[in-house]
């Protein structure tokens, strides 16, 4: 039997003994009146003499994370939702029998406490226990005796242990919660309405991504987890919702990497009578406000580098970026065959029938994207790789669209929407033709969306922002798995 199993068996025996003695090891009637933070904030600056005049008793509850025994006294440290605090047990105060009962507690157990505050000889604010209760018996020891959990695989599979052992991990997810809260406040303040659209779609649409499929038994129909909420949100715009946003979960049946998880969170928003230019301005305002709040300024550490967010951010056209940033031969813009030749020379794999625009997009991903450290808007993408974007009035070969890149990662994608139903039908058909020629059967033709569009949609602009990737930047996290509580992992080998 290994050490962990032996420790578990010891704790199980303790649990059985408690029950035989009539002690409920899992009660649910203790009421905590304060947290560690409440006490530390209110009394943390008081001297030992000042604390002697505090007559109030405090009820706290938390997990025991450290124990030090000294014969007739013990110090423990408990952790609750707001932090940690030291607790002092003295046999002559709690009584002989209760003190002996306490000494049967283990690190990891949950405890309820009542007592008064004082300051130890070393100056640490401490709770002097008068009464206590066992609130939950832990049967397994905490990881690595509370010195931290470092195994990446265990951290992701058993996130609860990661949160217990690594305090900074909790801070990452508190930042994530703050980001979502601030997004809601931002859009509510601009007159947007938060909406919800279906996760189960009869036809996957809104992005060229491979969907997850499922089956609805009662209706005997195939359904798909949404790859994007875009086409349903546009239906709401058609119905008269001129300013809407959704914080949504989307699913794409594709690869997993430090930047990709099959299940992810996005913000999508739409504003009628606006263009992609206003979307860029709004994006600067939204993201800068969060960088300021979380980092106290407009500079952000990122994997050993520093990113400057002071607006206005750089804006450069897609084709210009290939030449200026990617250092590619201008011939690729005019000669599709030369673009293919250069792509293959760089080791890029191209499917049969790949369009010129798609070849340029692949070159962009290879040569430009990794070099976009500072916030940069890439604008005027080729029309053939932007099936839902409005054609540019001056050059119909490109569209009124942008993507935002920070630290070499795509963070946002926005554009002026197509509201011409005939143009949208033609673009869908062309996209379907190209995918068929490439041997890709993952694309569907959404006739119902086209029907809705034929009833008329006002001029509108929309955008999607990847919340997971944005939180990665704000928390300087190297992997998307670090900002998702429970990322998808391969099954453990038995």
Q: Write down the CATH class of the largest domain.
A: Alpha Beta
Note the overall shape. Answer: elongated
CATH topology of the largest domain: BirA Bifunctional Protein, domain 2
Unreliable stretches? none
Examine the secondary-structure arrangement and name the CATH architecture of the largest domain.
2-Layer Sandwich
Query: What is the end-to-end distance?
Result: 18 Å
Q: Spell out the CATH superfamily of the largest domain.
A: Bira Bifunctional Protein, Domain 2
Q: What is the quaternary state of this protein? A: single chain
Number of helices: 16
What would you note in describing this structure?
By secondary structure, the chain is α+β, with helices and mostly antiparallel strands. The protein folds into 2 domains: 3-141, Beta Barrel (OB fold (Dihydrolipoamide Acetyltransferase, E2P)), CATH 2.40.50; 164-326 and 368-483, BirA Bifunctional Protein, domain 2, CATH 3.30.930.10. The chain has 16 helices and 18 strands. The protein has helices at residues 3-20, 36-43, 48-52, 91-94, 96-102, 152-157, 159-165, 167-189, 230-238, 276-295, 318-324, 336-345, 356-367, 421-437, 447-454, 467-475, and strands at 58-69, 73-80, 83-90, 110-119, 125-136, 193-194, 200-201, 213-216, 221-225, 243-251, 263-272, 299-302, 305-308, 314-317, 376-379, 401-406, 409-416, 460-466. The strands form 4 sheets. Strands 6-10-11-18-17-16-15-14 form an 8-stranded mixed sheet, sandwiched between helices. A 5-stranded mixed barrel has the order 1-2-3-5-4. It has a 3-stranded antiparallel sheet with strand order 7-9-8, with no helix packed on it. α11 (318-324) crosses α13 (356-367). It is elongated, with a radius of gyration of 29 Å. The chain starts with a helix and ends in a 19-residue tail after the last helix. The mean pLDDT is 93.
